Here is the input.
Amino acid sequence: MTLLTHFNSSGEAHMVDVGHKAVTHRIAITEGYIQMQPETLHLIITNQHKKGDVLAIARIAGIMASKKTADLIPLCHPLPLTQVEISFGIEADKNRIRCQTTVKTNGQTGVEIEALNATQIALLTVYDMCKAVDRGMVIQSVQLVEKSGGKSGHWLRE
Here is the structure.
């Protein structure tokens, strides 16, 4: 098992030195879901929500969140992101929306946290915009799906 890298030999939290690592093309893909009442999903699908296009606003919020990750996660490195793509899929049979985020960079450390943050905030934005009609929505299964680049190479969820 790999040791936790955000602690020094004395057990104190510290930012990992990535200065010696090679710059590589790095990609992270994450996903998550928000489940809701069928009526709420219908409002979103038909773009009849009084606050506007819920998914368009959630997409922008997720992109903004990915760029602010280092401001929110104390030991996360600020990274120059080269692309952030957020897509939504409607799963009407399960009364939920799937959010998938892809984040890319050319850097010395990965973008998994940026992608996870974007997915979480995009889903949270859907919740915020729809909470007046459905407080029982559930954000679930936010997870890394795939990553590539860096010393550890390619990883894919089974």
Strands lie at 24-35, 81-91, 96-107, 138-148, 155-156. The first strand starts at residue 24 and ends at 35. The longest helix spans residues 112-130. Helices lie at 38-45, 54-67, 69-72, 112-130.
